[in-house]
């Protein structure tokens, strides 16, 4: 489908804008801004009438370009401090401090709630001049953000990015007639909503695939692959029934938990791969990347692992961080190197550790101590269902295959989301810079060009 263009264009004189409709004005961003008032953090909530929702950068929906409906943070802000800071529906909020490498400071979003609120000290309330359409300018600021205008107006101190608002508002933008601003906002609201719905469908699919993956793992390691197999009571309340020919025993009897640590700074170990929890993907069993002990400037004692060992993070077990050691390596003292005996496959052990049943038990055990972790004694007391070794291998092969298939579908869905996000950003940029004439595509009344 080809979208209409304006009948006549002119050179804007600005590289990122290029040619723009001939009847549009080109001016500084500050020509659109009535005021830009920094927010306030206030005090801890007091449970009285001074408490008010406070919008933080964490409440920004950076895809839909709005403030999330639920603003969970309450702060105590006096009536005097609220002057000029109370948010109204249609206000724009500018992220003036914070940011990061992947999300630079300078994002603008629209406040759509009827509820009274203020914004935090890392955010500014941006009010437009009279008659300008906030919906259009929300999209226009999104285009300037995508073009990187914010990054060249950013200062960084102590790891925090700060937007130089004076420099930023001196950047050049385009000013369509007000009626066209309304038409553009209406068109983009409608078209981006369609894209957002497609993104939501893909996000839902990713969740369903993750649930299917987890259910498949949990069923296979506790019920096996034969639905007709006779069952027996395992004698373990959280484990329930298992196939009648399986054994049930504790970690203590079938899993060796590595003891003793080595010095990662010594010549013998400094060049070895060192695996820490941050190297392992949550719930998948995948190792994301590797670094040597020397590259990580490791100092304190680490465990020595054999290739093929299961490496399991004892910290925050709800994250389900476990993987197979790719070769002889080191692992963090926050992890356990585990090795099954001759009757227990390490691959089967890994899948069991990733199961819902084991994870729920590990989380329960971890809550008994101040720092959420499962200690060595608690781990050794955990019961495992043990199929015959040939069945363990079959289950491992089945789960490797199913997990690969489901993960591939999840990756396809994630790629679709990224493409939809790119399409959304490209559409916004094209419309707000006048590369598409939407005047005949909406019902809003138009001024003559």
Can you tell me the residue ranges where pLDDT is under 50 for at least 5 consecutive residues? none
Quick one: how many beta strands?
27
CATH architecture type of the domain at 225-386: Alpha-Beta Complex
Helicity, as a percent range: 25-40%
Shape: elongated
Overall average residue pLDDT: 94
Distance between the termini: 25 Å
Main CATH class of the domain at 225-386: Alpha Beta
Strand line-up of the largest beta sheet: 4-13-9-11
Structural class: alpha+beta
**Tally of DSSP helical segments:** 9
Main sheet, how many strands, which sense, barrel? 4 strands, antiparallel
CATH superfamily of the domain at 225-386: DNA methylase specificity domains
Radius of gyration (Å): 29 Å
CATH topology of the domain at 225-386: Adenine-n6-DNA-methyltransferase TaqI, Chain A, domain 2
